Amino acid sequence: MWAQNILLAVIGLSAGVIVASGLFSFVIELGVVSDFADRTHTGEHILLYEDSVALGGILANIFWVFHISIPGGNILAAVFGILGGIFVGCWAMALAEMLNVFPIFIRRMKIIKSVPYLILGIAVGKTVGALLFFANHWGQ
């Protein structure tokens, strides 16, 4: 029994570390953090910014998993909401800037005629995935 629980804990922690690493790599790759440093002319503090993003993700997960309440109530929630909204907005804009690469890629690869099928495939995949998720969720 103990061996099984330890094995499950190791697998769960390993999977969590892999997913978190991928997410933080994506945030860094999009250039959100470096954009903040560039626009505020504080590039010498880039490592502090990156550590702050990672620490924020780690602490939020700890608070979520262990149901830790944070003193400060609605005021702290409002501050967190504003700062989180700013960060997500900047993340979305960085992703939108990166998406400008797709039209060039499509023209160079000469797959212009295939684009409608690619879009249809993505839409069908998202629909089937959502249906499976909600069917499983409602079945419980």
From TrEMBL:
Protein's UniProt keywords contain Hydrolase: no
Record-given protein name: Stage V sporulation protein AB
Species the sequence originates in: Dorea formicigenerans ATCC 27755
Protein keywords: Membrane, Transmembrane, Transmembrane helix
Annotated TM spans: 6-34, 46-69, 75-96, 117-135
Any Pfam family: SpoVAB
